[in-house]
């Protein structure tokens, strides 16, 4: 039976992830899908992650360990992992070292891909300590046209298909690129999905199949702390928009995202963010062909103060919610709540 099922290569890049790695590995070993192999790529960890991975490799023939000879960046470590998938693998499943998957995850994802050859990636819902982070997915739709999916994402009406640990990739797409995760930006996982959808369709399982761990050591937390996900989101729009949107759509959507951006910068002003915060955003915007517009920023600050003054009840509720969830130091994240979940990889 096992040999009749397509091979799935699961990969987990890890850097100092010993705290969560066992739960991650155990979730792969508990999969109901039998025909899989598992490669853990250790990026010069100093906390015992490599030893944990080697312990499992000694006990389980399906588990392999690759230790990078020298430390590399998060995205390159992921690309090393992708290049290590089995030659006969038909599908590739990435699992971040601090996440875990439910027992039927791979089985459910492969089932959709096998029944629909046009599908290049298959996603599902993920859950974290705060609930299901994204839910705008057409109910009842198992397969979505790839280009339509990209357009819908860029226009802000579709999400939830690119979270790294919740996605299954067709291996031929992974092998077609030496660096499957392109560039160096935190959203390399999203870019990889969008590139796949240029030439394939999107499959989706309407079930929660992944647990996404939220913690302060994650790169996504660090990205959120300086609100750079909004800059990255704008960069994605400018990179993919010309290929998928008409000029009017691109102009309108760019203006919407800039408005979101300035709302966050206004909160940063109110909270007296440090020089490094402002340097990061000035440099980032310059690379995109923009600069911080002082009159527009001033208008956003006034609008923010008016909102605080005219809506005292909601203001107090937001503050209490942040205190309760331990997110006070990420003040301003709510203003960018539509932004993508950034590449959560090198822990």
Short description:
The protein has helices spanning 18-29, 49-59, 74-83, 105-115, 146-154, 171-175, 188-196, 219-225, 228-244, 247-270, 275-287, 294-310, 312-325; strands at 7-14, 36-42, 63-67, 89-94, 100-101, 119-127, 143-144, 168-170, 201-211. With 347 residues, the chain is of the alpha/beta class.
Model description:
Helix 5 crosses helix 9 and helix 9 (228-244) packs antiparallel against helix 10. The longest helix is centred in the C-terminal third of the chain and has 24 residues, at 247-270. The chain has helices at 18-29, 49-59, 74-83, 105-115, 146-154, 171-175, 188-196, 219-225, 228-244, 247-270, 275-287, 294-310, 312-325; strands at residues 7-14, 36-42, 63-67, 89-94, 100-101, 119-127, 143-144, 168-170, 201-211. It is globular and about 65 Å long. The model is unreliable at 218-226 and 322-347 (pLDDT under 50). It has 347 residues and is an alpha/beta fold. The protein contains 13 helices and nine strands. Strand 1, helix 1 and strand 2 (36-42) form a beta-alpha-beta unit. Strands 1, 2, 3, 4, 5, 6, 7, 8 and 9 form a nine-stranded mixed beta sheet that branches.
